[in-house]
Amino acid sequence: MHKVVGLGLIVLLIGYVAWIATGGSTLKSGETVLVEADDDSTAPGSDPRPLEIVTLLGFDAIRSIESPRFVDTKIADETYGQDELVLGVDIEGDVRAYSVPLLSRHEIVNDVVGGKPIAITW
After folding, report:
1. pLDDT tens-digit readout, 4-50
2. Is 109 a member of any domain?
3. 46, containing H or E segment
4. 51 in any annotated domain
5. d(Cα 3, Cα 66) in Å, to the nearest integer?
6. Strand 108-113 relative to strand 116-121: parallel, antiparallel, unpaired?
7. Sign of torsion, CA 67 69 73 75?
8. What H or E segment, with its residue span, contains residue 8?
9. d(Cα 69, Cα 74) in Å, to the nearest integer?
């Protein structure tokens, strides 16, 4: 059952790629913050220049996956390779697998497994 992957996840992946291709988030771009070096940072080997911290994504820019739909094992086997990493959940015999590469792009899936609401986070 480790190969069961959501059709909804596949659709969301395609939507995510389309979203990135059309310019990404409609949110304002993140702000840039400069951090000045402390006086103590002038020790040998330290860099006295200010560090630039850039916020790449705004607040809530990564959308969670809500109510994913899952496909049959045969379809998952045709879609994903044998080395696909997944997070597996089994609650009261209700078994799900969530693609780690997809979780790396969305970071959270809200689902109901075994009649219990859960959040899969990565």
Report:
1. 455 556 656 666 666 665 555 554 555 555 555 555 555 566 666 67
2. yes
3. none
4. no
5. 20
6. antiparallel
7. negative
8. helix 7-21
9. 15
